[in-house]
Amino acid sequence: MSGDLGAEVVVRAAAATLEKYVNIELVLVGDESELKDLVTRIVGDDSRLRIEHASEIVGMSEPPADALRKKKDSSMRVAVNLVKSGAAHACVSAGNTGALMATAKFVLKMLPGIDRPAIIAELPAIGGSLHMLDLGANTQGSADHLFQYAVMGSIVASDILGIDKPKVALLNIGAEDTKGHGTIKEAAALLTESTLNYVGFIEGSDLFSGKADVVVSDGFTGNVALKTMEGTVGLCGHYLKRAFTHNWFSKLQAFMARPVLRRLALEMDSRKYNGATLAGLNGIVIKSHGSADSYAFQHAIDTAIVEVRNQLPQQIGSLLQKEAA
User: What is the CATH number of domain 1-114+280-310?
Assistant: First the structure.
């Protein structure tokens, strides 16, 4: 019910998902009267889709603590409760990130061996994509936390990318072993001794090089890196548009380059990477970008389906037990 574009985005994504998958059931959680009208208009009659009424909505700028304490019948809380009870296998939300994280952690609890949840997302890279975490769930982290992030990231990347042993790297100020603070050096030592495919430190300039399938950092660094990427893409788009509209000749060049520009836009379409996993929870919760359209939200649902099929929490728990043995 929240997100920047309202419930219609989710209903249209649900319609596309029902068309794409035969053996799936979806639950739309929110204001029943509003959702009924949208479902009638967009989906029609489909027994695989039902509505679960929730009387409250968590606002996008609402403090997480208030959402957790004061809105126990919010669409977000009801959706996560469905996962807790087993009535749903996963929750996908475009709502308030902090509130979703707090609610999911409170209701679902953490997996044994995981101290804190982490936000992990897929990003484009040369030759494919990479998964990066933590992207803002925790501003600081110990070496043990970074190691746990690496375990979770390795499992998620393996499931999504179909890679048996994803290459795991630690984001650092240099690739040399002597670079970085004590925490990241200690985390490197833990990863070196583990069964993960640890490839060492990686600098920000090499994030998209294909050298790593999973990049691990604390939430403060990861979130700054992510926002910098988003800003850089916007800046490049601004300069590209300005260059192609400078005069009549550049406009003619833009017209001739349209097929190339269209292909570039498709390859760089951020909507294909929408859907961040709240990893480490005893359940599957996917955070869609608040401004996601129906195409992007459907990708977030796709991510949830992959994680359900691969039983992500159980995989993480098993690998943690293996590493502790």
Answer: 3.40.718.10
